[in-house]
Amino acid sequence: MKLSLRVRTPPEVNLTSLIDVVLLLLVFFMVSTSFVKQSQINISLPQAERSTLVEERPEQIDIMITETGTFLVNGRELINNRPETIRNALQKVSVGKNDMPLTISADANARHQHVVTAMDVAGRLGFTKISIATVNDPVE
């Protein structure tokens, strides 16, 4: 029996119909897309006649105690570390509003007595939201 080998022709892919479908979809989406025009409103804002200096009251009071026993209230250094000086500074900063949060932070080498003095003065003035800030040592 004699077998004959036929030469096979490579299959052809007809892309014409695929291109037609893609173009029709493109035209459909272009026609069906709605373009929204943003509306604009002209607003005339009021002008201030004169500027008034508004003194901002801090939202929190920070007491810092250095290694040498120096007190700083909201970054301002006090002239000494007597309780009367601390009390006057807290009254001035809080403007009589003792419901503000108060944070006490001290140097690691500061005396414990200075921290207790600050807490005592704040407690006698009626501050109830007193917290002590701590700093974690950096990991080596």
Structural class: alpha/beta
Low-confidence parts lasting 5 or more residues at pLDDT below 50? none
Quickly name the level 1 CATH class of the domain at 61-132: Alpha Beta
The percentage of residues in β strands lies in 5-15%
Shape designation: elongated
How many E-type strands?
Answer: 5
Calculate the terminal CA-CA distance, rounded to whole Å: 88 Å
Give the C-alpha Rg.
39 Å
Count of DSSP helices? 3
SSE pattern: HEEEHEHE
Mean pLDDT: 82
Q: Can you list the strand order of the major beta sheet?
A: 3-2-1-4-5
CATH names the topology of the domain at 61-132 as: Nucleotidyltransferase, domain 5
Largest sheet: 5 strands, mixed
CATH architecture of the domain at 61-132: 2-Layer Sandwich
Portion of residues within helices: 25-40%
Can you describe this structure?
The protein is of the alpha/beta class and 140 residues long. The chain has a domain at 61-132: Nucleotidyltransferase, domain 5 (2-Layer Sandwich), CATH 3.30.420.270. The protein has 3 helices and 5 strands. A 5-stranded mixed β-sheet has the order 3-2-1-4-5, covered by helices on one side. The longest helix has 17 residues, at 16-32. It starts with 15 loop residues before the first helix and ends in an 8-residue tail after the last strand. 11% of the residues are buried.
Topology:
Elements: H1 16-32, E1 61-65, E2 71-73, E3 76-77, H2 83-94, E4 102-106, H3 112-124, E5 130-132
Parallel strand pairs: 1-4, 4-5
Antiparallel strand pairs: 1-2, 2-3
Helix pairs in contact: 2-3
